[in-house]
Each structure stands twice: as C-alpha cells, then as structure tokens.
Amino acid sequence: MNRDWFGDILKENEKSGERLKGMGKPLSRETLEGNVLDRTVKNAGYLPEWVSLQQEVRSRLITLIPNLQNVDRKDEIDQEIDAINILVKKYNKICPAPMQKMLITRELAETQLKRWE
C-alpha cells in the first residue's frame, strides 16, 4: 500500500498547531506561468545526460572540422569520428525521439555540426 508521506507531514503539522511557511498565501504569478518543471529543474542545476552528450558532440565537432583536410592526420581524424559516433549512438538512445541525429561522416561533418547547435 502506498503512503502519502507529504499528507502525513501536513497532518502532523496541523496537530501541532503550526502553520507551514506560506500556507494560505496566494501563489505568485511567476509560479503559475510557464513550465514549472523546466524552471524547477533549471534552478536546481540539473542537466539531463543527453544534453551533456549533445554539448560534448558539438564541442568535439568544432575541434575536428578545421583538421578534416589534413591528410597527414587521416587515421587520427577517423578515430575521432568513430569516438564521436559512439557518443551520437549513446545520445540517440536516451534523447527524445524527435531529437535523434545521424552519425557523423567526414564529408558532411560541417553540415552536421549545424544540427548539433
């Protein structure tokens, strides 16, 4: 059986005769407008893992793109693209479905970067 912990706390508080801070006062307009969950999460400093991955992919692409034409570093660049694509696959598994992205290719990296911004 599920317990209503918050309800129990309120009942205990009522029995003791104490009032909770702000109880009985009207809610502010700011509290009632916009997406309360988004604002609460943002204020708490929480960053979903898929957003962190998105930022990492973007950062790595920005570093990679100026080096794409460097034929002396072809193997190193291919390894970095493979590493980025591992992050893209992880991102695609946990992000909202409409936000999924294609894997990075050498030929389309600059175009794909725009989709990660």
UniProtKB/TrEMBL annotation:
Q: Name one Pfam family in it.
A: DJC28_CD
InterPro entries xref list? DnaJ_homolog_subfam-C_membr-28
According to the lineage, what is the superkingdom?
Answer: Bacteria
- Residues forming the DnaJ homologue subfamily C member 28 conserved domain are 19-60
Name of the molecule in the record: DUF1992 domain-containing protein
What organism does the UniProt record list as the source?
Alkalihalobacterium chitinilyticum
Q: Give the classification, highest ranks.
A: Bacteria, Bacillati, Bacillota, Bacilli, Bacillales
